[in-house]
Amino acid sequence: MSLPTTHPKGMGGEKETLSSAGGATILIGLQVGSRALTFIVNQILLRYLSPELLGISTQLEVYSISVLFFARESLRVAIQRQTEEPQRDTTKDLKVPAGHVDGRTAAGKTQAIVNLAHVSIYLGVFFAVILAWLYLRYTDPIVLQTPYFHGAFKIYSLAAVWELLAEPCFVVVQHKSLIKIRGWAETVATVLRCLATCGSAVWASRNGTDIGVLPFALGQAAYALSLALVYYGSVWGVASTGGFNLMLTPVFSTSVVNCHPFREETH
Question: Residue 6 domain-assigned?
Fold first, then answer.
């Protein structure tokens, strides 16, 4: 009886499984840690801010989440179905125009999802304006009279759009399973949001200044800004090495050429 042999393909599958399990562990730990840190921050804020301000901050958080959801969730689902496998090179003689990324390669596949992710930014601007108009039109007038409410609301709107600026980096991280980059970015952003929120609230309380819900807006701005900066700082090198761009870049595709089977050939 011959002993079973171990094939390299099986070993690769096992390593991939272990990598996926490790990535899932990191994400679960990140979510648990984020929730625990948020709970601690809220307990601290209760000593310096009224429950009414916490309730208004929850409404602002719902507004921000709604903008992000409508702007990016459907596109994320579509992007997850994209593969990185290069196409069979049946048109070797075709030259890629300058300033384009070859869509037949893995870099071209990645560039395509990056370009698609940029749509989220434009959708975010649209939904931020529409939802802001609806919220300000139908919310309780008493809430609108909260100190610094309008300034905080504008900061939340800008922070939502700014967070969407990191979407091209996020899809690359998801597409290439760079879980550590995502964990690092979200950890830094969460910690800075907590520090900005607590720091401004404690400062205002000790100086006898009523800044309303502004601490929550400052925390959200710190989160969005740091998230985008860490993502771009980490993924820019990946893009340079991989041959694609994080900005909008044309992708050269052979589909147009293949749609014309009766084109004239030059001899």
Answer: no
Please give the span between the terminal C-alpha atoms of the chain, in angstroms, as a whole number: 63
Residue 10's pLDDT is: 45
Q: Is the separation of the CB atoms in 215 and 201 below 8 Å?
A: yes
Q: How many C-beta neighbours within 10 Å does residue 257 have? A: 12
Q: Look up the pTM and report it.
A: 0.83
Locate all alpha helices (DSSP H) within the chain, ordered by sequence: 8-45, 51-80, 106-138, 141-144, 149-164, 167-175, 179-206, 214-242, 255-258
Q: Shortest CA distance to 86 belongs to which of 113, 110, 105, 107?
A: 105
Would 266 be classed as within a structural domain? no
Domain limits for position 148: 20-88+96-252
For 252, phi then psi, to 5°, come to: -75, 125
Give domain status of residue 260, yes or no.
Answer: no
Q: Are 64 and 47 in contact (CB under 8 A)?
A: no
Q: Which residue blocks in 46-148 are alpha helix, DSSP H?
A: 51-80, 106-138, 141-144
> What token pair was written down for 147?
């100190």
* Total domains present in the chain: 1
- Give the pLDDT band of residue 21 (cuts 50, 70, 90): low
What angle do helix axes 214-242 and 149-164 make, rounded to 10 degrees? 10
Cβ–Cβ < 8 Å for 54, 42: yes
Q: Is residue 5 part of a domain?
A: no
Query: Using one digit for the tens of pLDDT, what is the confidence trace for 24-51?
Result: 677 788 778 888 888 888 888 888 888 8
